[in-house]
Amino acid sequence: MTAPATQAPALLEVRGLQKHFPVTEGILARRVVGEVRAVDGVDFTLRRGETLGLVGESGCGKTTTGRCILALERPTAGEILYDGVDLIKLNHEQLRPLRRRIQVIFQDPYSSLNPRMKVGDIIAEPMKVHAIEPDAARRAARVRDLLAICGLNPNFAGRYPHEMSGGQRQRVGIARALALNPEFIICDEAVSALDVSIQAQIVNLLEDLRERFGLTYLFIAHDLSVVRHLSQRVAVMYLGRIVELADCDELFDNPLHPYTRALLDSVPAPDPGVEAGRKFRPVKGEVPSPINPPRGCAFHPRCPVAVESCSQARPELREVRSGHWVACSEVR
Amino acid sequence: MTPLLQVTDLHTEFRTGAGVVRAVDGISYAVEQGETVAIVGESGSGKSVGALSILRLIPNPPGQITRGEVLFAGRDLMQLSDAQMREVRGADIGMIFQEPMTSLNPVLTIGRQITETLEQHLGADPASAHARAIELLGLVGIADPARRLKQYPHQLSGGMRQRVMIAIAIACDPKLIIADEPTTALDVTIQAQILELLSGLTRRLNVALIIITHNLGVVARYAKRVNVMYAGRIVESGPAAAIYQNPRHPYTMALLRSVPRLDRPRQARLDPVSGQPPDLMHLDQGCAFRPRCRFAVDACAQAQPLLAAVGPAGHFAACLRGEEIAAAAAGAAA
Fold first, then answer.
1. Which residues of chain B neighbour A283 with C-beta distances below 8 Å?
2. Residues A31-80: pLDDT tens digits?
3. A10-326 belongs to CATH 1.25.40.20
4. CA-to-CA dists, residue A54 to A47, A64, B263, B328, angstroms
């Protein structure tokens, strides 16, 4: 079951995606004593030119989902159809041309850039690896172009990452992602590590690039206000599964899943007037372990509206109104 | 009434091979008994170093508190001996840091870390310290406290560890708690729990709280007064309501405008603060925000502006054009 693909054709279809990591014990004889169900049955469709926000707290499986799509993890089960081709069935060689079309921007601009490489070489490396601009002079010109596109002085090509601020480094990471003219970029917490005053700059840059190059984004983040700003549709994950998926405005104006509501309630508004008038009770408890998730709905131990049946059967994601999918048996 | 804490003209610098960084460059503020004051700023603004300087926790070398006075309950903390200072830390002033995994000792049980504080500062005997530790864990909302006391930090979740940090901070009935980004490493739902706990406890126990954060929402929800820091200085200070409704420093104005908000309709486009964060190694005598400021004029390059009253009820901003900006904002509102 997937969300409906209306309008533009689907670029990416994720079906029944599962990624379980084994939990081992022992030093010499390692035996598997359990598994972490990082991703436990995820379905969604991403249309060409669309930005899908993927939100959730640490350990909900949003990053692992992204890594499976990037073929950095081998899923335990499921299908990842990219332009109709199942990525999971491809071998290393067959994946290569596809890797050019799918790029990633990571969270931490400090650890995702090689400190011993000059910025120009960092951006040129993907072109070398994929042999798309063999001529060194033309490659250098392209690097300068990419720097300018990302709002940096082209002369920064000669600098090292440590000579730059966090925001500038993230621009380098974005320039590197663009080097191969990708059509699809996974932004994994791409603005989370940046200072507030720099965050908005990078968000605007990502929007400009989307327009200019017709990019499709999977925007993985925990910051709900940034996700709302950037996304057309949003999926909320909890303990390895999508619990709610809807058009962005629909999700934020009319959240249906109790977890989505709790998440939205937890974000204080930057306005003392608004906060003074708000009745607020934080959701109780903590995210359970994905090694031993609760029976039934994973959210039921913390849920304010849980009923007895919630601990029995796991609710499926179903479409409760056009394009609005919820995995909660209490939502009519 | 004299305030509980009065910081006056505090300067802290770091001497590195590449030059001197004036991380805190002359800050002054007061905290009243039982009051919650937020210190807001971005990385490198000096908000954490300023708080660590109050506790004299600046590693020397490379750091050094070069000037200033910190009057706490009538005593200047800068003049105390190291032994006297150890008595203040953890007893009169509690501390909560960002990463509870690194601020708790990984090889001691939770219980030992709480009782150690009690024995050290209050001279409690082991039995009464143990009983008080159970009580404290209950206060911070940890279920089954007797069992938890025997556990080690790695056996607890991030939210749980931060609850333990709060228990240690309030263990000796402090008058002031300094919380440095207490929830930055936590998930949003846990962040909400911890902040509600902290604000509830400080209110109930009448403890003053300095909360250091970059999160403008957290400040709006919990602080009564706010100090906004930029490049080692307080650029705006005042009641939270005044600062959010009538920001008078161009940096505060730009910062508040730049964040996307869930409580408002979606904007077509964000309005970022332009330019890069300041390079503390290469500041000149002018206003540090000048290169990013849309109100900057030539005179801004001449001298660092001082905090001056810009509105009623203790609202100050350090901007040469503060009055003009206030007048323009008043005109626009009228």
1. 189, 192-193
2. 888 889 999 999 999 999 999 999 998 889 999 999 999 999 999 999 99
3. no
4. 14, 11, 20, 42
